[in-house]
Amino acid sequence: MEMHAIVKAGEGPGVEWRRVPVPDPGPDEVLVRVTASAVCGTDLHIAQWNAWARNAGIRLPLVMGHEFCGEVVGTGSRVRVLKPGAYVAGETHLPCGACYQCRNGLQHICGNLKLFGIHRDGCFAEYATIPEQCAYPVPATIPPRIAAMLEPLGTSLRAVLEMDVSGGSVVVIGCGPIGRSWARSRWRFMPLSGSGWPGRAAAMARSRSWVSMPPDSAWWRSWG
User: Fold this and answer.
1) Predicted TM-score (pTM) above 0.85
2) Which stretch of DSSP H or E encloses residue 149?
3) Which is the catalytic residue, given 35, 45, 93, 119?
4) Which of 83, 105, 178, 210 lies at a C-alpha separation of 20 to 30 Å from 27?
């Protein structure tokens, strides 16, 4: 059985639209029919094959993409919780489960961490496989266009939870989706962006919860 996928076939700029085999889930994995995917800056780096991508240990050829949601349609022999029909969002970071960090609840800094859509095939396809522990059930009330963005949203949420910012002002450097998640959370802060400023600033302004300042402003220059 085959599917369509966006593939980074080799070194150099560009990607390909290909027919590739539908992956089989491993014993601890689920097969997900992809409903929606989001494009991350990392995907653009890979497509452009810039200096970062050339040195990121990317496995080629590669089905790209790492932010997605979809429906579980198959399970491995050791999957115990998720069932076919479950609506899930994918986690990008794939811990080994065996190192010291993993055995002590620190999977996010796994010593053998692999990245979905970088070290193994990702989600810019009709189907994708992912470890059960990295597939999170999503309420049916959350539409796919939002569920596909839960991975980058989690980055902002973790920053809020890890830092004591209650009642304070926060400076967010960067006005991409992660920075904009802060804006939507109604924190009072000053977003600073070095690229795409006008469009991103306009989008963030709609949140009406922040003070904006482009990177060439006198305030920014005063910080040296």
Assistant:
1) no
2) none
3) 45
4) 105
